[in-house]
């Protein structure tokens, strides 16, 4: 790890007035600094900035520094969000990691984390090693010739499905942006991963009230049961009335370069029967536009099956 200057602002105003890299739980930033993937000269420890709190009185509001473990355990948090958090990392990391930091975590692509390998995210214009290399874990949706890395966050998938928004602050004021619009596809500029502007700080995560999101879940398929990133995941909320799907929210992880909302699957579900056959038909369009690589073509079928599994959990009480 290279030398850096550390300061600890105690207000939002002081934090956004000082150029530097924000440090919250440190579960991503410190790792990348140790690997020399990130080499900030000035680090701002923002843990004393008053950005905590969980409010479930009308929708959900999380202070950006609220820890993942606290949100997962809080009564009234929609099940898809709680479960996505509980399936993330280990309990020790969930105790440390902030919700804002989780949403900004960098990809776990091994080429990004290896400074000896070409990576357009790390060094723009150097190339993407994964396209012709080991790419089993990589994306099949939203990819480009410059980058095929998946987005790492579990809870971002659930939040995108539930139309979450971010509140952001900088020295000029505040703004709000839909989380689904915040993340950027790699295109020709994979180093630009989101719409966070220089000096901006996430202050709050807001999830609109959606009463039927109480009937939601998050299914994560991975190589081992714990402390592993998703091969594929699905966040689903379902409004079923008299055996008919009145409305649905569906997003996927582990398959896209960003948390991947699936409006085509949602549209296929609406108005149809809440049956396994109907779920399979709706999920069949989930991978439309996919561009599998040499080692991850299995994700097309896995995505479809993961969505069906999540839908069946909500309609049959399955705990598979």
UniProtKB/TrEMBL annotation:
One of its GO terms (molecular function) is FAD binding. Coiled coil: none annotated. Residues 1-212 form the FAD-binding PCMH-type domain. InterPro entries: CO_DH_flav_C, CO_DH_flav_C_dom_sf, Diverse_Substr_Oxidored, FAD-bd_PCMH, FAD-bd_PCMH-like_sf, FAD-bd_PCMH_sub1, FAD-bd_PCMH_sub2, Mopterin_DH_FAD-bd. It comes from the Bacteria. SUPFAM superfamilies: CO dehydrogenase flavoprotein C-terminal domain-like, FAD-binding/transporter-associated domain-like. Keywords: Oxidoreductase. PANTHER family: OXIDOREDUCTASE, XANTHINE DEHYDROGENASE SUBUNIT C-RELATED. This is FAD-binding molybdopterin dehydrogenase. It comes from Amycolatopsis rifamycinica.
């Amino acid at each position: 790890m290279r030398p850096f200057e550390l300061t600890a602002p105690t207000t939002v105003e002081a934090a956004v007035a000082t150029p530097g890299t924000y440090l919250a739980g440190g579960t991503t930033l410190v790792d990348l600094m140790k690997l020399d993937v990130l080499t900030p000269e000035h680090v701002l420890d923002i843990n004393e900035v008053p950005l905590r709190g969980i409010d479930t009185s009308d929708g959900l509001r999380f202070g950006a520094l609220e820890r993942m473990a606290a949100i997962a355990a809080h009564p009234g948090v929609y099940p898809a969000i709680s479960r996505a958090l509980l399936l993330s990392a280990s309990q020790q990391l969930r105790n440390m990691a902030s919700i804002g930091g989780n949403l900004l975590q960098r990809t776990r692509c091994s080429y990004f984390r290896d400074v000896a390998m070409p990576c357009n995210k790390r060094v723009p214009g150097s190339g993407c090693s994964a396209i012709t290399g080991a790419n089993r874990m990589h994306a099949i949706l939203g990819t480009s010739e410059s980058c095929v890395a998946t987005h790492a966050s579990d809870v971002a998938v659930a939040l995108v499905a539930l139309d979450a928004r971010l509140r952001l602050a900088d020295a000029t004021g505040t703004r709000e942006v839909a989380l689904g619009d915040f993340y950027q596809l790699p295109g020709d500029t994979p180093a630009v991963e989101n719409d966070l502007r220089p000096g901006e700080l996430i202050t709050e995560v807001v999830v609109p009230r959606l009463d039927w999101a109480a009937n939601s879940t998050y299914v994560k398929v991975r190589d081992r049961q714990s402390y592993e990133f998703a091969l594929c995941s699905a966040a689903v909320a379902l409004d079923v009335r008299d055996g008919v799907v009145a409305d649905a929210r569906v997003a996927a992880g582990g398959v896209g370069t960003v948390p991947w909302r699936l409006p085509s699957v949602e549209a296929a579900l609406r108005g149809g029967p809440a049956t396994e056959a109907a779920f399979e038909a709706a999920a069949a369009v989930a991978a439309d536009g996919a561009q599998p690589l040499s080692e991850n073509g299995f994700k097309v079928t896995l995505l479809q099956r993961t969505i069906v599994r999540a839908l069946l959990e909500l309609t049959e009480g399955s705990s598979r």
